[in-house]
Write a structure and sequence with these properties.
The chain has 11 helices and 14 strands. With about 300 residues, it is an alpha/beta fold.
């Protein structure tokens, strides 16, 4: 396994940031690591990269224990943190040369030139990092993460601050990189997950709540249906819940409701009959298309 996490827990005082987390990622997989803010994503990534220790459990990268052999782990990981810390007083090429020296990169000049070309920094390579836009700083961070040709790439919100064209370019870069390396990527952008990832791991409140191939998540999104219905007056919610196929009802306002149903049961005629039986009129009846974002919301709400 490129990444193996066995019963890892991280506590800050009495607060669990991670609680008995288990993850296995094979070579060549691009895995989206998703969760709401504060779910434990960055904590897990910092443990894998050796920035912070876990409270208990074991984590391995390319077979090396992150606690017992941290240098071997760091040699094999390219890491782009969420806030992308850099020496902003350095020039782009100077900074990449410094990073290449830390990793003892061979043929340093040629490798730096290759990375500059790869991430699209040709016009910015002679500029001071502090003068760059956030998007171009992000590219510098990606170049740094890839510079030593690591086996595992860990990216924490890699497209933050990029314009739409840059986002597409970086997604394509990550996808191409994933053909040869293992990529673990956190993001809040569901379109990014669908465009790039083979598999999705969802974490909530420090615990894994889903770990599925992207195709299975798509199936989950189609296994239910949401209908927004507006009545002429407030209905009896308890009676409406008894309609066969209704799984959940969310109140939007006094007369508007979101009704989650089984996708294989046609619920619209039943809602119409419910309105007739209860002397109500339906002013609106609209089916909402479900997607991976809806699945994410259900698993983390």
């Amino acid at each position: 396994m490129s990444i193996s996490v066995n019963a890892v827990t991280k506590k800050y005082g009495n607060q669990f940031a991670l609680n008995n987390v288990n993850i296995e990622i094979k070579p060549g997989e691009i895995v989206g690591f998703l969760g709401p803010n504060g779910a434990g994503k960055s904590t897990m990534m910092k443990i894998l990269t050796g920035y912070i220790p876990q409270t208990s459990g074991k984590a391995f990268v390319c077979g090396f224990d992150v606690e017992e052999d941290p240098i071997a782990v760091k040699k094999r990981i390219g890491y782009l943190p969420e806030h992308n810390p850099q020496y902003t007083e350095m020039y782009v090429k100077e900074y990449l040369s410094f990073c290449a020296g830390l990793f003892h990169v061979k043929n340093k000049k040629a490798r730096i030139a290759e990375m500059i070309q790869l991430v699209g920094l040709q016009k910015e390579q002679h500029k001071i990092i502090d003068s760059l836009s956030k998007g171009y700083r992000q590219r510098v961070g990606l170049a740094q993460a890839l510079l030593h040709n690591p086996e595992v790439l860990i990216l924490d919100e890699p497209t933050t601050g990029l314009d739409p064209n840059q986002v597409v370019e970086i997604r394509n870069l990550i996808k191409d990189t994933g053909k040869e390396k293992t990529v673990m990527m956190s993001t809040h952008i569901m379109q990014e997950v669908e465009a790039v990832c083979d598999r999705v791991i969802i974490i909530n409140r420090g615990e894994i709540v889903a770990d599925k191939p992207i195709a299975e998540l798509r199936k989950l999104s189609k296994s239910s249906e949401v209908i927004e219905v507006q009545f002429s007056a407030p209905p009896d919610i308890e009676k409406m819940k008894q309609i066969k196929g209704v799984n959940r009802i969310t109140t939007v306002n006094d007369t508007v409701y979101r009704v989650e149903t089984d996708a294989d049961i046609k619920i619209s005629p039943k809602l119409v009959q419910f309105a007739i039986d209860n002397d109500l009129e339906i002013n609106k009846l609209q089916t909402e298309e479900q997607n991976i974002e809806d699945v994410f919301r259900k698993l983390t709400s």
